[in-house]
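Q: Hi! First time doing this. I have a protein sequence and I read that you can turn it into a structure. Is that right? Here it is:
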Amino acid sequence: MEQTTLGLRANARQFTLLVIVNAFVGGMVGLERTLLPEIAEQELGVAATSAILAFIVVFGISKALTNYYTGALANKWGRKRLLVLGWLIGLPVPLILMFAPSWNWIIFANVLLGINQGLAWSSTVVMKIDLVGDKQRGLAMGLNEFAGYLAVALVAFGTSWIAAEYGLRPYPFYLGIAIAVMGLLLSWIWVKDTVHHARNEAPAPDQIRLKQPFWDTTWKDRVLGSVSQAGLINNLNDGMVWGIFPVLLAQRDFTLEQIGLITAVYPGVWGIGQLFTGAMADHFPKRGLLFGGMLLQAVALGGLLWATSLTHFLGLSSILGFGTALVYPTFLATIAERTHPLDRANSIGTFRLWRDLGYAIGAVLTGIIADLFHIEAAIAGIAGLTLISALILRWRIPTPLKAHSPTT
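A: Yes, that's right. Below is the predicted 3D structure, encoded as structure tokens:
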């Protein structure tokens, strides 16, 4: 068996490389964060909210399913192979977005983007957890998600600025070509597989194998199941913000630059905040972080119903971003803590399956409510679901939360 050393400092070079790679992965999502609803309405003649949100539905479903199979195959095929495959599948995405003659081509690009994200982001998550061992998982996940979501914000703002100066297409998507090529080259040439780190990690004395990793992670285990439902609701409201926010702001006569700024603040705070909240997950009770983060999201989403000015929307986007920053690395750190090293990739894949199905469910639910009633009704409904999710976390996760041994 290949000898390995666990720990952030011992694996600093590979860990840093994986942080950079995940920034490129996040940048691929940032390409779409502001522009697709505008392209749908202005260039491709798509008017209904539910039709516009179809790109998020297919993205969420393809990413969710790919997450699951990435987790299931990570030990068998190796993390690096799945990472490189993700980049190969992602290469055509910016080209399709650049030249798509119809909305169906945009939908197809989002199938590819979902697969790219499921393979590449899931692989970097598992690889970082493999490298750091059991003491700095929260910090590791905070750094990983910081890089990914800060890149989402920067690219979202950058593409909106380019679009305002030079038009919606093709110029903003040249940035995507550079991101995809760099991500592939870094992953293929310099990233090393970490499967041996997982195999050599000694489980804690009371850490047992999951009997049914899929069902235990989905709901049976009180902690893992609670985290999975919260992950689904978190991305459900993120899918709503992704698809509805630009439409809502456009209806309220904000300029494209202002829309880009508001939509960039949310993932920006989300990303930067995880530099701090990831480390907090290593030292503070996880139940409190999870409950507090989901509660802040509910409050921010509810506040959108009364927001009128740029300042209001920027403030609420910041609160929403910080609430998400509290839960995102804590989700993954909790699952890593609660699972045996040989179950970890599978359990993370299952969690990410349900979490990213939230994109699809959120987009469908938001589109239906918005088309039947109005956008404000959709926002109110999603805010209510987020509050219920926070209460489930508060009720179902035991306190104090003990590590390693699953509870039912």
